[in-house]
Design brief:
It is a single chain. The chain is of the alpha+beta class. The protein is elongated. The longest helix is centred in the middle third of the chain and has 31 residues. The strands form 5 sheets. The chain has a 9-stranded antiparallel beta sheet. Strands 3, 6, 7, 8, 9, 10 and 11 form a 7-stranded antiparallel beta sheet that branches. The chain contains 8 helices and 27 strands. About 20% of the residues lie in helices and about 40% in strands.
Length: about 575
Amino acid sequence: MGKFFTLFFVLLDLLNPWTLVFADEPKKHIIPKAIQVEFTTKGTTYFERNLQKVISNLGLSIDEAYLDNYQWTSAVEYDLNKPSGIGPEASALINSVRAVLRSWFMGYHSDLVKPALALKDLGYQAVFNTFSISADPAKLKRLNKTKGAILTFQAELKEINLDISQIRAWNQNSVELGEVGFNNFQMQIADQSKPLQIRMSFYVSINSKGLLEFEVVDTAQNLNAINLKIKNYNLVIPSIEIVINGKSYPFNKNQLEHEFFEKIPSFMIQIREYLHSFATHQVPQILNTIAKQYLVKTVEELKTIDAPGGVKGRDKTFQWGLQLKELTQKDNIRLSLDSYIEDELNPNSLPQITLPEWRQASLNTLEQNQYDLALGIDLSMINRLLQLSYERKLFEKIPLDVPAATPQKCVTKPGKPGQVLKLTEAPKMLPLDYRSLPQLAWGETYIKLRIGIQVPAGTIRGLQSVMIKDRFTMNIDLVVKLKKKNRMSLTAQLWDFEPKTIQIKSGLTVLGKVFKQVILEKITNEFKSMSAGWQCNEITIGGDIPLPNSIIGVAIDLKHLVTEPTGYLALYLNFIDKKGK
């Protein structure tokens, strides 16, 4: 029996960071809303406080970044005689540069510029006062959105150092003039008492086609109030040679360097005003455009999953897919994911149970302030995994002669050597009404295991061969208690069986059909005898069931688990800070 109880918590691998792909797969046998994840307000607050640590745990860094190359070419011309949206300092700088250009190029009077820019080896180092992301249900309501979520990113940078190994700019209208720019350009915040502040809110949703939608809804920053300074630069200008009456006079670039040095304060004002305007007006448009270009296919996670009962490395794995289906935000953020599990060796296999799409996990057993994250796993997904393994004949038998894992506290009748119950159908995990069962402690739940079996000869003594065949088939529901063993694992303990669920499927003799009720009572008594020591001796099946120890790089601890009447196994989890929680 252990083979199909060691399996289903491998599904919790979904808590590890996703490797997302934009899927273009044929239609699968979808189980709607198979996984549901809900972050409480308490849980999202963790990311407000610890986002930088979370990113670091994932092997990423916000303190520094690097980009090989960046290039931009304008599609429009700009008239330097009609600058718009800039202050008097910037206008003075433009006029000064234009005058210098005219003095160089003798007769160059065009004020129509079509700029282009190329950067190489961009990097930054930063020190953050704050770096967080938070949910904003109030803004979602103000925008009259009924689905999706508003997330707000905020950062405050105490220090930032920008390094660019090469900057080149040119006028596409006058390429013969060559390029100007800098080598080893370095810029930083001049006054740490005025940190750079950035805030951006974006709307994320899943549309009716299952496509992820992203839209920046507002942004704010204080770039126009930040004092920037150039720490280092090497000016680069074209090689210029003036020829008069056939005689060459090399151009001395000191004139431009002098002009530029004098105009650095105005130049820095122009830079910060441009960056402020760019961040306010163009960055949201750029992000929205990029999102529309790339978010054109279903966002899906594709991975493999071991076949329950199989031998790792020998038996071919199953294919497991998760599709982000729904994102909602009320007081909490909830993700609903469709799932499918397929076997390449058995592609025509259909899931045994088709469930209506309206089903969902309630995830409301605990008070919101008692946990950070709730995870609902549809039992039909676990049953699909069991079904596919059963159809491969990877498990067919339940041994009855397995000794107890621990010394017996209660004496029970052992199974005969070699005695087994042969499965006649794929087992199913189901919810059950456990109000009549002993009260559960924290970290415990009951679950039902429905099995169809062929009973071996001699099991029901005194009846087999007379009223019932030596090998008859029956169905029965077993009761199993799942309970937290430690932060890293659960155990599955055989607890009881439900007598009313016993059904004889085949094998009754003519006489047995007359005395069917007598046979059912005899079978019930045999199972009572067999199960008498389950609770007392804490008979577990399948060994420890592993739990994931982290989600997206954050350590987690299981607070509680509940089998919901709707058919979901609900796990309530807490994030763990390094100092504990």
